[in-house]
Amino acid sequence: MTEIAVGLIQKYNWLVLLYFLGINGVYISLNLLSFFAIKRYFGERKTTELEKVFQSTFFKPISIITPAYNEEETIVESVKSLLQLQYPEHEVVVVNDGSRDNTLSVLVETYKMAKAPITYPTQIDCRRIKQVYVSPHYTNLVLVDKENGGKGDALNAGINFARYPLVCSIDADSLLESKALLKVVRPFLENPNTVAVAGIVRIANGCKMRSGQVIEVGMPKSSLARFQIVEYLRAFLFGRTGWDVLNGMLVISGAFGLFSKAAVVECGGYRNDTVGEDMELVVRLHRAMRKKKRKYRITFIPDPVCWTEVPEGLKILSGQRNRWQRGLIDSMLMNMKMLFNPKYGIVGLFVMPFFFVFEMLGPVIEFTGYVVFFASWYFNIVSFTFAIFFLAVAIVLGIVLSVGSLVLEELSFRRFPKISHLIILFVFAVLENFGYRQLNTWWRFRASIDYIRGKRGWGKMERKRFQEI
Amino acid sequence: MTEKTLTLKGQLASVSFLSFDLLHIPTAIVLVLVALTFALMVYTILLRIAFNAKQRSRRRQFKIWENLLLRYLSGEVSSEEIGQAVRSRHFDLFSEFMEKYLETLRGEDFESLTSLLKKMGLPGYNLRRLTSRRKWHKLYAAFFLGLMRDKEAISELQKGLQDKDYLMSFASATALAKIGEKKQLKETLSLLTKREDLGPDRAAEVLLEFGRGICSELTPLLHKEDTSTKWKYLIVDLLGYWQYLESGPTLLKFLNASEDSEMKVRCIKALGEMSYIESAPALATVLDDENWLIRSEAAKTLGKIGTSEYSDEMVGLLGDKNWWVRYNAARALMSFGKEGEALLRRMTQQGEDSQVRRISTHVLSETKLLGREAR
After folding, report:
1. What CATH number does the domain located at B276-375 have?
2. Contact B12 A381 (CB under 8 A)
3. Which helix (H) or strand (E) holds A26?
4. CB–CB of B198/B188 below 8 Å?
5. Three-state secondary structure call for residue A431
6. What is the pLDDT of residues B331-347, one digit of tens each?
7. A138 and A90 in contact (C-beta within 8 Å)?
8. Which of B247, B239, B252, B169 minimizes the C-alpha distance to B208?
9. Do A58 and B322 touch (CB under 8 A)?
10. What is the DSSP string of B317-350?
């Protein structure tokens, strides 16, 4: 009996080891792909002057949609920064999703907005619109006040009001760099088959801001924020860039993404019954395009930056990760038909299975893997050799990957101005593998359990004002 | 109890599947990975130190060259002296330095600059690079030769136009356009339109570089059957952008005959851009089009080029089912001068339905508010 149990434990340890080998192997490959993709991006950028075109009338106008729910702290600043973006023709559609605070009144007051009798064609269903406001001072600003229906519903309402062929979704607590739209629209000009583009999201904690713009990149004092810098660099710089090379981008962060309005409308817009509406929409876009056998491109640009404040407290961070994980599970389960389905090409045969095993089931495998491994170690079920091997694959490879993403950052954008920043980030790239990653696994593991128990809501969120100098 | 646990541990240990003698392999892997990590960290920091030093030296160098160049342009320094100051190993950096001057300077200064670069041998250097195996060298060479408007590069750039890589083909096309060789337009266009990986939006950059002079050659392409719809859209946009009045009749013909709503909208916009007054009657006929975008754009353009003789049509649109059509019609009335404004004011009281009254009030108060702000 004992021997059977021991045999099973050993097999499970091997399974977990293979899991770590698999996930880190794929990530190393993505890292390499990203290196070449970023090199190409820089080379191309050096020899083109697209901004000249943008300064003329040859551009695609953009409707920026920013859903707002209880954002009174940050909304004025966000809208101000959106209105100041360098782009020849863009409108800002703020959707007040039934906020309980003063989001609506601060906007109306600040921008001297007046009720406007605007009607709109309902292309995607959404909750009842209570009132529409426009500003005579900012003719490209529209405020839509609607009944609360969730983020997806607010985005759908914004899409209905959008006048332009490209819609850009932006979180109300994020800030865009002034040239971000000019850069993110490029793929739509270069490749007529483009349906969606993601930009990079960077962390604003510790940065100096003025008039809604980051004027100096800095290092936050909070350790949690520092861990997240490494994490975001890994996720965006080589994660998204690498998947993009394979045309397998499944995630466009709700914080910053640009979509073809026609494609989104054709897909039925955002779903409102998930907390992962951003990822779900992208997966559904892949599904719809591949099903119709259309040539399409969903891509990522590593340069146009969206700045966001990340949580510096464990409670808020755990809530955010819980929501992300449940959103991921939703997106996977809602599009299960794509899994291992050759009809969906590389997305169905490789990307979706990868996300299913390594991202969706990953926390369960990792968490139980750690528990079983330490128990086996305590009971001497695994040899010292195996333990070292496990350490190499689970921890040290993780460190190599995190350090790799910092190297990629240094070879490309060099956003952190001081050498001391680099050293701090290297230290945190090592440290995150001893506690922070495991904590994340635990939060995501609990999220999976919450999901099974039927938890679906957004949970409590905290809004923080950007620190201006 | 302790003895029992120890026995159990001993038993369990005996079934361990990796024997101790294999220990050196995973240990070696860990050590290699740790060493790799450490090496990457050191490499990155050294890279940053080198980068900072390079930036400092670059700034220093640019300052020296800037001073020399300004003195050269004012005739204080000869081209030979600059040639001596810039070694051939610095040609890449010098090319980068010259970019902003070549982009912004025109006339005599530009001629002096290109003559200086020729004496220094930069065109030859870049022409050699154009045939290099290194893709980014080739691309940059095409880009730089375009900036220099170097006619001697035309034949090499023509070869680049045929390159399999769309980036090279695009860079060559842009360079040829900058050089302004209208003879190359036909070939460039035919190549660009054939490339599936190069959409018309991107091609706009090349065509813009050719400049307004190509309008007469673009207009006939609108009638050609083998010109794709997307290209026709682009051509219409370009004609409007360059305000090429000679294409007005063609655009009007398209507006009247086309069944494509997108084409109609673009034609209306282009006619508005070029303020083609003769198009007003035709615009009035599309005010009842079933597509609200066409109605809205036509109202907007009539507001720009029309006169109060279209007031009745605009008043009619104040009750349109689409808000933007109502809004643009009200704005058009405002742009018709005092007569239009008075009409709009009357509509706030006498408008047929509440929508008419509301949009009239809205546009009037918007204008009033803006006027007050301006004062």
Report:
1. 1.25.10.10
2. yes
3. helix A2-46
4. no
5. helix
6. 999 999 888 999 999 99
7. no
8. B239
9. no
10. HTT-SSHHHHHHHHHHHHHT-HHHHHHHHHHHHH
pLDDT tens digits for A209-259? 887 788 999 999 999 999 999 999 999 988 999 999 999 999 999 899 999
- Cβ contacts of A411 on chain B, cutoff 8 Å: 47
Q: Between chains, do A192 and B167 touch, taking CB under 8 Å as contact?
A: no
Strand-pair category, A174-176 with A297-308: antiparallel
In terms of phi and psi (left: phi > 0; alpha: psi -120 to 50; beta: otherwise), the region of B211 is: left
Q: Using the beta-carbon criterion (under 8 Å), do B29 and A389 form an inter-chain contact?
A: yes
Q: What is the DSSP string of A264-323?
A: HHHHT---SS-S-HHHHHHHHHHHHHHHTT---EEEEEEEEEEEEPPP-SHHHHHHHHHH
User: Could you read off the pLDDT of A174-209 as tens digits, one per residue?
Assistant: 889 988 998 899 888 888 889 999 999 999 999 998
Across the interface, whether the CB atoms of B44 and A407 are under 8 A apart is answered: yes
- Sketch the domain layout of chain B as residue ranges: 69-80+88-210, 211-274, 276-375
Spatial separation of the C-alpha atoms in residues B196 and A289, rounded to whole Å: 19
Q: Are B269 and B240 in contact (CB under 8 A)?
A: yes
Are B69-80+88-210 and B276-375 equal in CATH topology? yes
pTM (global) more than 0.90: no
A4–chain B nearest CA distance, Å: 11
Closest partner residue to B205 (CB to CB) among A50, A116, A400 is A50
Q: What is the CA radius of gyration of chain B?
A: 33
Contact between A391 and B17 using a beta-carbon 8 Å cutoff? no
Q: Which of residues 407-436 of A touch B (CB under 8 A)?
A: 407, 410-411, 414, 419, 422-423, 426, 430
Domains of chain A: 27-351 (3.90.550.10)
- Whether chain B has a CB inside 8 Å of the CB on A9: the answer is no
What span, in angstroms and rounded, lies between the C-alpha atoms of B221 and B236? 10
Smallest CA–CA distance from A383 into chain B, residue: B16
**pLDDT tens-place string over residues A289-298:** 999 999 999 9
Fold held by B69-80+88-210:
Leucine-rich Repeat Variant (1.25.10)
Q: Is the dihedral of CA A38, A43, A48, A49 positive or negative?
A: positive
What's the gap in Å between the CA of B6 and the closest CA on chain A?
9
